[in-house]
From TrEMBL:
Residues 14-104 form the CS domain. Transmembrane segments: none annotated. PROSITE patterns: CS. It comes from Willisornis vidua (Xingu scale-backed antbird). This is NudC domain-containing protein 2. Pfam families: CS. The lineage of its organism: Eukaryota, Metazoa, Chordata, Craniata, Vertebrata.
């Protein structure tokens, strides 16, 4: 199964019923579609180290325990064009092996063969001193 790839950014967005999410080695980005005309005062967003809650006009859109911890003071959300909420979370663990396999624990999983990153143009040198994720148990 092939995920859509955004060539310019090098990320593979993970689609969800409410929008999409993607990650870099340092950050997690969440994009939530909201009804056109949404105003900031309609939005309630709570960003904790391991928890997220988002509602618009009293309707819960996203809520749960994050896959891994984030830096609470670095989390931000913005409302763009009154129809998209963009949330940016800074990962606590930014090692190359820390690739989130889902946004929330057991929800909104990434493609295990391409979990939000595209390495198709990468040169594998084997010089990473701390190793990396072990994908040998995954089936194609």
């Amino acid at each position: 199964m092939s995920a859509p790839f955004e060539e310019r950014s090098g990320v593979v967005p993970c689609g969800t019923p409410w929008g999409r999410w993607y990650q870099t080695l340092e950050e997690v980005f969440i994009e939530v579609r909201v009804p056109p005309g949404t105003r900031a005062k309609d939005v309630r967003c709570s960003l904790g180290s391991r928890h997220i809650a988002l509602s618009v006009r009293g309707q819960e859109l996203l809520q749960g325990k994050l896959f891994d911890s984030t830096v609470t003071d670095e989390g931000t959300w913005t409302l763009e064009d009154r129809q998209l909420i963009r949330i940016v979370l800074m990962k606590t663990n930014r090692d190359a092996g820390n690739c989130w396999t889902s946004l929330l624990e057991n929800e909104y999983a990434a493609d295990p063969w391409n979990p939000g990153f595209d390495f198709s143009g990468a040169e594998i040198s084997g010089n990473y001193s701390k190793g990396g994720p072990d994908f040998s148990s995954l089936e194609k």
